[in-house]
Request: fold
Amino acid sequence: MLDSSKNKYICQIFCAVYFVWGLWLQIQNTVNIQFERKTTIGRFITTIVIFLVFVLILLSFKNVNKQDILYLGIFLYLGIISALHEAGLISFCAFLMTYLVKNVSINKILKTFILFSGLTLFLVVLLNGVGIVPDALQFYGLYTERVRSTLGFNYYSYAGEMIFYFICSYIILRKQNISYVELIFLYCVNYYIFHFTDARNPFILSTLFILFCLLIKVFNFKKNLFQNKFVKFGFEYCFPISFFIVLLLTFLLPSNLFQKLNLVLSNRLILNLNGFHNYGVSLFGQKISFITMDTQGFVSSNYNYVDSAYLQALFLNGLLYLGIILVLSVIVCKKIFKTHNLFFSVALILMAIHGIFDPPLLWIWFSPYCLILGIANKKQNELNIELR
Reply:
């Protein structure tokens, strides 16, 4: 164990680095603003962050046990594989930070995520409203006057994804202490973003979480849920179950039902199927260049993007990578369930469901889930203190 003063020092630096880096990554990767040398600046900042994270890892090396070494190796593997096939240094740095979560309060991590995500959302939507940050795309429906806009972000779904993870993190922290006024405010912001972006999946899941919290406050039935074996199984294995649902929807539906659901899900199912045909499944992954837009900024006729977070991880980073992620998720969900933190458990289920249809589950600039995986290397007694 580290002494309390050193651990506090590591925690403070970690959260400061996470705030600055997370805010930068959201600006770089989600906001519709362009400036000279943005990519170069981003690489420079990420390199500095990697250096600082390595320093914090070295500072945390005291009485290191076999479990710590095992998890460091696991997170290094995940970081290297995803760096080779996905987001480069960003992915590598994200998994290095995940290892450090063993020394950092998960509540402080969520607070930091809420701060920079809330700041980005507020400023970008405000600046978009006054015309300073323009929409990247606008879609005018054929049979309606409604305009689908990006609210100043690079794509329609980005604001919706951001508010979904913001709401999950906020409710995890507030738990049963959240007020009716807070729930109403969260729903209003959620609906405002949905009204302009028409991003359905994050809106529906965020709304369900808000309604669930409302029911808990009114009826207070949460104690009974932890005594049910089926509920326990669903909480603990929600991520592998969600991956199985992806495969079920892709391969095992009758053709007529497949076509109907594919239409409802904006062609996601056929894109999943094409992904298996085009890329196949490998043990260690492969580099894939997804085609989304053509040179004129319209949706390409060769569009081949796979939205499911699970299938993206499978195609890009391989079977071993996805298997490790799913095993870590089960360990995390089991530990959270043992704390009887219902709000955290439900948030994880919603994140798992969200990953069936949308990709940013492990993108550190959108979601805190990558860092939440670090709970797997936390001791249960330390976890109880933080989450109860």
In short: The radius of gyration is 21 Å. The chain has a mean pLDDT of 90.
